[in-house]
From TrEMBL:
SMART domains: Gln-synt_C. Belongs to the glutamine synthetase family. This is Glutamine synthetase family protein. Residues 14-109 form the GS beta-grasp domain. It comes from Ruegeria alba. It comes from the Bacteria. Residues 117-451 form the GS catalytic domain.
Length: 451
């Protein structure tokens, strides 16, 4: 991390000449501007501006109608990008470059834009802090490495995709040694950028990787995740490869997840831990986890935001299909880790690699805090193969289903506000509408002759 004074010295010494000033969009991507470092020091460190459509577009940067926040009729005005100088950091994989994350403010009132992902998470953190609690989280980033760069693969129409390896490399040291020309600089550059990287490993499919980052307070965790995901794509590209966070790139291949580990702390003590309680999980922890589980269908969109996200939820793939918890059982939607220790926590396994960490973490917090407010009782843990448990609650099986549970969630509307839920419901609807109008290769191959 950098202080503002250190940045001044580096600019004066000529070792830094570029500052990336970034916001996080609805899809969890970095958007912004590259400033000459001296201009940033002179004025842009206070604020800069961007078009307000950046929080009302899809992956293709289309400008769909139906948003109250911005539209063609309203003229697409500006937002204020307010740099959070505590996030200043070097980007060692880009020469002479540092970056800073911004909060997004209304251009006229200078109040936070409520549907900005960073603000959505901050609002739920504030709810926890009002109870004297600090949310602590960690995310796991899974992705695939492919032969060829993004540009090369795009020119083929994304046909004949070839993973970097030819076999399942879960925990595989030999195969991952062959990938160290990408993964070693990824670990080291991120660590030098202030991201507390723990490790990388091969995951349970050919060409699949996992990046693990040490737990932190919720906002820092989301910042780390976003920067790490961006860096993974850039560093892979620099080494002639494409890194994809698409959850399900092939129907015969295991998908990619982003598991979220979370607990609450009071000061320096873990509030989930009670040495005398069953599994070491405190009453507060039981209530929080019960809320996450009860309301999982409500917030699934924030964990699985695209049509493709739901292709991952398949039996026997380590991706969950049920909204139940278990003790160290990877077939359940929620897995207790660290049973009986101060590290006791719940891992939500529902989220895919395409989630926006700010929105996902905010949704989990909203549901868990509701569980505390309602003093919900946590059901006994499930055991065995949860995929075959007919009594367990189901995760919404499609984006269309998740749109309904999101839009109709009284819990999320109370926790996040109608404005935020209406905004992201429209985001989800547009994604479904765009898919519905397209004729897929599968339909043509299946019915062109045989129908």
């Amino acid at each position: 991390m950098l202080t503002f004074e250190t940045l001044k010295a580096q600019v004066a010494a000529g070792t830094v000449d570029t500052v990336l000033v970034c916001l996080v969009d609805m899809q969890g991507r970095l958007m912004g501007k590259r400033f000459h470092a001296q201009n940033f020091l002179d004025s842009a460190y206070e604020e800069t501006h961007c078009c307000n459509y950046l929080l009302a577009t899809d992956l293709e940067m289309a400008t769909p109608d139906g948003y109250r926040a911005t539209s063609w009729q309203a003229g697409y005005g500006d937002y204020v990008m307010k740099p959070d100088l505590s996030t200043l950091r070097p980007l060692p994989w880009l020469d002479g470059t540092v970056m800073v994350l911004c909060d997004v403010l209304d251009h006229h009132t200078h109040e936070p834009v409520p549907h900005s992902p960073r603000q959505v998470l901050k609002a739920q953190i504030a709810r926890a802090e009002a109870l004297g609690l600090t949310p602590m989280m960690a995310t796991e980033l899974e992705f695939f490495l492919f032969e060829g760069t993004f540009d090369e693969i795009r020119k083929t129409g994304y046909r004949n995709l070839t993973p970097i390896s030819g076999y399942n490399e879960d925990y595989h040291i030999l195969q991952t040694s062959k990938e160290e020309h990408v993964m070693r600089p990824l670990r080291n550059h991120l660590f030098a950028a202030g991201i507390p990287v723990e490790n990388t490993k091969g995951e349970a499919e050919a060409g699949q990787e996992e990046l693990n980052i040490r737990y932190a307070d919720a906002l820092a965790c989301a910042d780390h995740h976003t920067i790490a995901k961006h860096a993974t794509k850039e560093i892979a590209h620099q080494h002639g490869h494409a890194a994809s966070f698409l959850p399900k790139w092939h129907h015969d291949r295991v998908g990619s997840a982003s598991h979220v580990h979370l607990s609450l702390w009071r000061g320096s003590e873990p509030a989930f831990y009670d040495k005398d309680a069953a599994h070491g999980l405190s009453e507060l922890g039981r209530q929080f986890c019960a809320g996450m589980i009860r309301y999982a269908p409500d917030y699934t969109f924030f964990l699985a935001p695209y049509v493709n996200s739901y292709k991952r939820f398949m039996k026997g793939t380590f991706a969950p299909t049920k909204t139940v918890w278990s003790v160290d059982n990877r077939t359940a939607g929620f897995r207790m880790c660290g049973e009986g220790t101060k590290g006791v926590r719940m891992e939500c396994r529902i989220g895919g690699s395409d989630l926006n960490p700010y929105l996902a973490q905010a949704a989990l917090l909203a549901a868990g805090l509701q569980g505390i407010e309602e003093k919900l009782d946590l059901a006994p843990p499930t055991s065995g193969d949860v995929y075959d448990n007919a009594e367990a609650g189901e995760i919404p099986r499609s984006l269309r289903d998740a749109i309904g549970t999101l839009d109709g969630s009284a819990m999320l509307r109370a926790a996040m506000g109608d404005w935020v839920i209406d905004h992201y419901t429209r985001c989800a609807q547009w994604e479904q509408e765009e898919f519905d109008r397209v004729v897929t290769d599968w339909e043509i191959a299946r019915g062109f002759e045989k129908a």
